[in-house]
Structure formats: C-alpha cells, structure tokens
TrEMBL record:
Membrane spanning residue stretches: none
Topological category with respect to the lipid bilayer: Multi-pass membrane protein
Family: Belongs to the DoxX family.
Annotated PANTHER family: INNER MEMBRANE PROTEIN YPHA-RELATED, OXIDOREDUCTASE CATD-RELATED
Subcellular localization(s) per the UniProt record: Cell membrane
Domain of life: Bacteria
Originating organism: Streptomonospora halophila
Stated name of the protein: DoxX family membrane protein
Keywords: Cell membrane, Membrane, Transmembrane, Transmembrane helix
Primary location group: membrane
InterPro entries assigned: DoxX, DoxX-like_oxidoreductase
Length: 187
C-alpha cells in the first residue's frame, strides 16, 4: 500500500481499474460456466460436446483450456496481477471465439463476432497499456508485469489463435472426407 501512496493515482488508473474489473469478472463468469456450470452454464460435459461439434477436438481438453483461459485470465485481469499473461489468455480464447462466430456476421444479435472480438481487443489493450496503479501488479512492483512480458504476451496471441483455428479446420475437413455414418466419438 505504501507504493500506492507514493505515486499519484490518475483518472487513467481509475479507468484501467474499471475496465479490468468489468472485463475480468465477465470472463471469469464465462469461463466458470464452461468449467463448473456456474452462473447458469452447462458445465464441462456440455462444453466438451459443443466444442467437439464445432471441430475443436478433442472436445473435453479444448473446452477445459478455453474455460481456464477465460476464468484464470479474467481473474488475473480483475485483480491486475499477471496482467500480460491474463490478458493474453483472455485475448487468445476470445480470438478463437470470434473466428468461430465470424460466419454469422458482425453483430451479436445474429450470433456474430461482435462480443468476443470486443473482449479480445479490450484484453489486448490492457496488456499493452498495463493494469494501472490500482492493481496487484503495482503492489508487487510489477514482478509479473515486465515490459518484455507484455511484448511476449502480445506476440504469442496471433500464432496461438491461428494454430487452434487451423486445428479446427483440419478436424472439420476430416469430417467432410469421412463416409457418412462413420463419425468419430466426441471427446
């Protein structure tokens, strides 16, 4: 707390806190819907089945990773602790979700990419900007929020999203090539 008192808190710090907590809480809730069925979610079995059906295979591990990225990334953002890693996890998961929704157009009302893309961009902006002074990263003297960590986090997101999306497209192509009636079991 002594560190916070020595530096002047700005409106930018307050804005970062507001964005971090709102975005982080939303992501945390979204991830725990997948993992545990909290907040009206279907839980891991339902998420795994959905992921398998969308081409993210095997479904259970992919749903688990997505849920963990959202829940842990959201918690990290809300607390402002490990902001680069938390933001990258959130941006990656939401980048994949945006690609999944892209065929439906832009607007969320049509099932489009609007919502996940906005979350991905917001998480990316928080990584680039940093958590602000009203954060646990500030209180810990940025031990988990170094400039090189921000750069590494920002650089890691696009290839990670591309790899997951490419894997999905390979799975869907394999499905299309299989003779009808010989579908694989969900995972």
């Amino acid at each position: 707390m002594e560190v916070l008192m020595m530096k002047r808190v700005t409106t930018g710090d307050v804005a970062a806190l507001a964005i971090r907590t709102g975005l982080g809480a939303t992501l945390f809730a979204h991830g725990t819907q997948k993992l545990f069925g909290w907040f009206g979610g279907g839980g891991l079995d339902a998420a795994a089945s959905g992921f398998h059906g969308m081409g993210y295979r095997p479904g259970r591990p992919m749903a688990t990773v997505a849920g963990l990225c959202e829940a842990a990334g959201g918690a990290a953002l809300a607390l402002g602790l490990g902001t680069p890693a938390g933001g990258a996890a959130a941006a990656g998961a939401m980048g994949v979700a945006a690609e999944t929704h892209a065929p439906n157009g832009f607007f969320n009302t049509e099932g489009g990419l609007e919502y996940p893309a906005l979350i991905a961009l917001s998480a990316t902006a928080l990584v680039a900007q940093g958590p602000g002074r009203l954060s646990l990263d500030e209180a810990t003297r940025h031990v988990f929020d170094r400039p090189w960590m921000r750069l590494a986090a920002l650089a890691a997101v696009p290839p990670a999203v591309a790899a997951v999306v490419a894997r999905k497209h390979r799975s869907l192509a394999e499905d299309a090539a299989e003779p009808e009636g010989s579908g694989s079991a969900s995972g």
